[in-house]
Structures
1.
Amino acid sequence: MDEIIEMAANVVPSERQLKWQELEFYAFIHFGVNTFTSSEWGSGYESPEIFEPTALDT
């Protein structure tokens, strides 16, 4: 376990990762069944029929 912690503590980002971070712009958009239930987390029992993106304009 100590070895894993030591390795994790010494992780260095790649040049590519640093360049991405310097962009300071990111977005994560999640569109799914929970969008229609106004819930952050689903229970797994939601009906798939409620997923109706009829007016979706991305």
Note: The mean pLDDT is 86.
2.
Amino acid sequence: MSREPHVSSEKFEWQPNVSLLVLATLFFPLLILLGFWQLERADEKQRILDEFNTNQQAPPVGLAELKRDENYQYRAAWVRGTLDGNRRILLDNRVKNGRPGYEILEALSVKGLKVDGRSQAILVNRGWVPASMDRNELPVVETVEGEVQLRGVLYRNLSGGYRLDDGIKTVSQWPSRVGWVSAERAEELYGNDFFDYQLRLDSDSIGALNTGWVTVSVQPAKHTGYAVQWFVMAAVLLLMTLIANSNFGSFVKRK
């Protein structure tokens, strides 16, 4: 009469299960990588917030101070010029309070604005407007007439992130609805030189629509929390693998 082999609980012994070990070998490093990725995201978001706080405390920058290689991200600025309401950009798929819409951008012609000897315009983001349920119906936006002084914050697109490929190379009809925009792309669309940063208008500035932009969509602490969750899952997987491939459970109870 055959009997099941007796596993001693007095000393620790391996009872390897190849399938479980393979799964653990695959998933454990993945969980660790996800944890470190979230920590990197937390560091990235913290750097953005630190830059925002530092430059927000700096005095507003004027036209005479603008230089190409300076860091003006989130820096307050006062700019005087004329907005081109005839050539307007509608930045598509901008959601605010759960409602789809557009951000309205126009080129600001500034007399005497030269950066490193080059005459340049500034792309002005006037803010958000709701979109119609009919995609063929574009929003009606009041044009700002004449020379005006605008107040806002300088902003340059952050690296990375998802860009909607709208397939637009040249503008055949204004206003132009695009999936993404930067100073570099504005130069292609308008055929003019643009300053590296756009101006996001303050809520009480002339020409402002529905303004207010989120600095970071997810706070650093939340990314850190996600990282802890991934590391905990890795630890649990390691413990479960140990239990499933040894007499660890009975060995601990014996002790």
Note: The first helix runs from residue 18 to 56.
3.
Amino acid sequence: MTSKVTHSISNGIATINFYDEKSNALPGSTLKALAESVTHLGDDDSVKVIVLKSAGDRAFCAGASFDELMAIDSPEDGKSFFMGFANVINAMRRCPKFIIGRVQGKAVGGGVGMASSVDFCLATKHASVKLSELAIGIGPFVVGPAVQRKLGLSKMSELAINASEWRDAKWAMEGGLYQEVYDNIDELDVAINELAERLSKFNPEAMSELKKNFWEGCENWDQLLSERAAMSGKLVLSDFTRNAISKFKQ
């Protein structure tokens, strides 16, 4: 099995770990499992705070699985695939627990969307970001609202238009995507553990109410992200996108 999602709970701290051998590029099954894990842990009274992380040290998440993108053969299938990222984002939005993001490496496309959807994101200096969707003929429609919420329209537009260019972790921190950036994974993990332990001792009701305030104004995202998924699902069928994905895979 090349792709999986696991979770564990210790002293009120839940950790979700996802993995795929292709730079943590996520197929639909992994996205479904991620959304279900977030929802399940959000409903678990023994969980006070959640840490979201990926395996390996090179890439946090390389976005969508190109193999599955190439296999899409109808607008309906396309929408269904892109709803995978929409469901993960909405699950994190609705989750009553704070989610800490651990971004140890590069984030692309949907990976940037997930980093934008956690409540507090810490990273290493190697955690560059890129929204590559436009370069393959789609556009960051599904993740766009989450990225714009964190970075603002100007920074989000910069990422979306410069679809072939990386922005480094310092740029992402100055824009508000990352709260802190560390030199290496060991320092990152120490900071995450300390933060998670502190939060696990705070009033769960107060944190839940505060999270609602953080996400105020996003109540229409179930419909919005569904509409955005349909846009991407249609565009992925174009000859331009098919050819572009083939070149990327090569």
Note: The chain is about 50% helix and 20% strand.
4.
Amino acid sequence: MDIDMDMKGNMKSFVLILGLVIGFGVSAFSQDVAAIEDSLSRYYKILAASKNDALSDSTSQKMRNLFIQSFSFPETFIYPFEKLNMSRITSSDGRVRLFNWNQPKQDGTYKYYCFVLNRDIKTGAYEWFELVDNQKEVDKIENKILNADKWMGALYYEIIPLSTDKKNNSYVVLGWDGKDDLTTRKMVDILEFSGSKVRLGAAIFKTELGSQKRLIYEYSNDISMSIKFYQKKKCIVMDHLAPKNPMMTGVYADYGPDGTYDLYQLEKGKFELHEKIDISEFAEDDERPYVDPRTRRRRR
């Protein structure tokens, strides 16, 4: 069954009552969402195989419209979407869910799509937002607050509540960006909800260069970099990047892990930098490997 529709607008929210689903078992709603999932899965396979930007654009647009259609059903927040081989992650507190995919382009860059669902635990209602990828190269992006319609596109692979407070509205998100044919980026950002709006960035990272609203790391496509959040220790651990040749400082295609590790520890609402830490205590704790999407579609 192919379900498609024409929708417009960069960000919309629609409140849905998940409680309606309880007691009905497998409802007609679930059948509709399952049909949407089948269509999404088919389009995603077309996107993965596409070697034409126009086809990729139209396919992603069809996927976008289908997701928007799915948000008219209460159970979409909890529906597993197991047929979709794309980023669909939920925060550990059960309040935020992300649907996120990357569209490879023929020039070696990527375009990103992301929907953010924010659920009220008490009522089961959720609202949704669309992040629009249009902030690729912005001066001093590390220190800018980004709104939903001015998002620095990324493929998120983890979302973590910033606190256990029931009123928490801030989340750490870890993301990947296949910047171009030479370099890759990873980022640590803050996703926040304020009223009926969502934004990214918060001045809580205390770096060697001063306070920053997000962390961005750029390095050679030939290597991989690890950034992981350790829930029990409330910290972020990452490879320390450096150029192979000191003469190449600032040329990120020459950057990669130098064998040391840095840590950002959450202390009184701020992430404090600790350089060259002892990594042994993290070696077997809370391991969650992340597969770089580029390895599945490396350009020649």
Note: The first strand starts at residue 16 and ends at 17.
